[in-house]
Amino acid sequence: MYNYRRQTEESDRAVNIVANFWLNSEPIFFEILRGKVVLLLFFNYASREWVELSRYLKEWERRYFEKGLFMFGVHVPKFPFETNVENISREIKRLGINFPIAVDNDWINLSRYKVLELPTIILINRDGLISYSHIGTRRLWEVEFNIQSLLIKAGYRGDFPLPIGSRHEFDESFFYKVIPEIYAGYSGGSLGNPEGFASESVIKYEDPEIYINGKFYLSGEWYNGKHFFKHQPAEASLGVIILPYIGTNVGMVAESTNGEEINLIVTQDGEPLSDENRGEDVFVECGQSYIRICEPRYYEIVNNFDYGEHILKLFVISEGFAIYKFSISAFRTNREPVGYGG
């Protein structure tokens, strides 16, 4: 995902958000926010970008709320389960998000704010005029510089900390080919097995043992949904997902469709993950690495230190595991811990 930054002439006036529901607040109206700098975020929660961005958002709120910054988000669904307000509420609580969230299941506000991709951050000045927009999670220190600039224009005269990530930030995807998103499901999925898709049906797949980057592969019996593949064997048997990839980090959007926790065994290049390269949602126990899946959300699997080519495998026995998407990146950052210098 590429960044797009737009510095306007501060002539576009922010319009009130239309929402199906509001979380953490009653409806927000810009008329009552005059005099404040407003950060308006458009996002969907089941994504790598949201998890990464949430860390910045919490720190920006801590640093700048008392200086005159007001933040709220607009959640726009990409997957069917993201229209469920209970799923959204559970995820923002899990990540410790306390600012208001508007739930826009009908995508009404995207065109009103000319939003082309998610996530998008829009900064609004003290007079209610749009001043800046930013797509994605690269170079977020630029967003913080603009927050500081608008706070000064709004009248703040105190000191500011150094923006998070402005010291060291490195994205190897500028130099190497990375396929950032690989979708499952028969509607636009990137399945590499020669058996192919069969909509709303169960197919028994075999591991072809020859892989192409940009595809994923299945072994076992899997139900073909429009947006997902679900492990659905006739009798208890092993299912495997194989993902060849080039990059540093891998995560997936997944869920347990039966509401019970499902443990998957995870290997990379035939070996268990370790404390050095496991993602935040992976745990190591008795020499094996596992990822525990339950509610529908983004799960971080691998966090390699170096860029490279690997084969990731997920082994599942339990029925009901569903995979929607893999996310791959080459982004590495060496920055001060969040909270530094606030």
UniProtKB/TrEMBL annotation:
DipZ thioredoxin-like C-terminal domain residues: 180-326
SUPFAM superfamilies: Thioredoxin-like
A Pfam cross-reference name: Thioredoxin_10
Matches recorded under InterPro entries: Thioredoxin-like_sf, Thioredoxin_10
Domain of life: Bacteria
Residues spanning the signal sequence: none
Name of this chain's protein: DipZ thioredoxin-like C-terminal domain-containing protein
Species of origin: Candidatus Thermokryptus mobilis
